[in-house]
Write a structure and sequence with these properties.
about 210 residues, mainly alpha, Arc Repressor Mutant, subunit A, 2 domains, two-stranded antiparallel ribbon, 2 strands, rod-shaped
Length: about 210
Amino acid sequence: MPSAMPWVKIYTEILDDPKLGELPAETKWCYVQLIVLAGDYDADGYIVTRDSLVTHANIAWRLRVTVETLTRDINLLCECGLVEIDHGAIFIPKFAERQGRKQSEKREQWRERQAKSREKHDSDVTRDSRVTHAPRGEERRGEKRKRKREKKKRVQKRRKRLPLLALPIYFLMQLQKSLPQTQNLWALASANAHPNSQRSVQRLNRSNK
């Protein structure tokens, strides 16, 4: 099971703290362990669970010391004001002030920030979809109109060329009637002529008969 607080702050000033400096080495180490344990329970410096107090026997087991050794160290720490006993619970003074908010409160604030971030992201995506989709549709319609205009221009251009192509072929047909030697020229012109031009020549012939 993960700790409520994965880490705690240990201030460097404890190296020069006269109250701590006069204590035995084992008691100093017990003080550091109690700070870590208070972070594990995450109760603003109290070494308690949600439902009940934590007994000295349980604390001694977690610190891997005897109950007698733990009781001795706690008494020494209480004498110099580094630890207090509040209604039977071990309390580390100024723990909440130095460590900051409880980890549960930090997690709740983190979840609130994440929810706000997701809401902002969703609203941005929705707004962007409304803004960008309309121009895309308009752009596609504009391209379609442009293709229609270009197609219409090509058709009109072909229609304008028809009389220019049909007129020389018509004169060649008249020359064919009078000059047999122009048959090869007529065959070449007919092969290269536009199909619509040939139909135009045929209409000219019918109108001249």
